[in-house]
Write a structure and sequence with these properties.
This protein is α/β, with parallel strands linked by helices and 257 residues long. It has helices at residues 11-14, 27-38, 56-61, 74-96, 106-109, 123-130, 154-165, 211-224, 237-242; strands spanning 4-9, 44-49, 101-103, 110-113, 116-120, 134-138, 140-144, 148-152, 169-174, 189-190, 229-233, 249-251. It binds adenosine-5'-triphosphate (ATP) and Isopentenyl phosphate (IP8). Its EC number is 2.7.4.26. Substrate binds at residues 51, 56, 154.
Amino acid sequence: MPDRIILKLGGSVITDKESGEAGVIRENILQEVARSLKEFADISLLLIHGAGSCGHPQAQQYKIQYGVSTENREGIYETHIAVSGLNELVVKTLRNEGIEAISVHPLEGMVASEGELTGYCLDHLNLMMSLGLVPVLHGDVVMDTKKGACIISGDQLVRVLAQQLGMKRIGLATDVAGLLDADGSVVRELRPSMAHTIRIGGSGSVDVTGGMKGKITELLRLADMGIESNIFHISRLKEFLSGADHGGTRIMPEDVA
Ligand SMILES: Nc1ncnc2c1ncn2[C@@H]1O[C@H](COP(=O)(O)OP(=O)(O)OP(=O)(O)O)[C@@H](O)[C@H]1O
Ligand SMILES: C=C(C)CCOP(=O)(O)O
């Protein structure tokens, strides 16, 4: 069986998150990514993407992260439709390159409690990958037993799916070279015991899931479970896919050399 890899494409990469304008998708970057992925057709891939400007502004406008009642329930549709539109374009672009991508929307099959995914069946993802399909999930709004609904980041999906599906390698491509320290240098290795020594911020743009801080929190939880993950700049995608040095940050379990 080929190695299974999870790749998250950051919303900051595939959308224009910084301009503050909602819904701007970087189609040229998506095409480049699709072409790169095509070169690695022998990899068994599960793709996750963030929302960027196609979901974060809507989630913030409807205050989804503070809970959902009949007052703001319209935000469930508005947020989901924004990120689903992005997902449709991601899948279409991959398929145009001959990659057997298929959309999987978390809202339709996952439930959370207090913002943490608690209810889901992943059998279909296993079966899809066994058939050589590339499931394409995304950060989404999902129903929540305590809060009505909540936002699940692509980073949380990375943690849950990496753990549950036994993925061999985990990579998060974003718009920075990796986790940066106070001098702007890339932190090449991060372990749970040293995380408190680095000042980690949110995102420079509208982001309801915590930006870099949210990402590192999820990946440190993976490290605590003995699973390594990687953050790198999108321009280093091929290095990550081929197993070469991607120049970014490896988030590692405490006792791994
Ligand atoms: N110490 C840090 N090192 C690197 N980036 C940082 C740091 N602190 C804050 N950031 C911000 O985190 C951003 C990356 O996180 P962000 O969540 O926006 O990325 P993403 O995963 O690509 O987007 P999305 O959440 O929409 O999928 C960077 O663009 C940077 O502005
Ligand atoms: C805002 C929505 C809909 C999902 C957020 O996912 P992320 O961009 O991975 O943080």
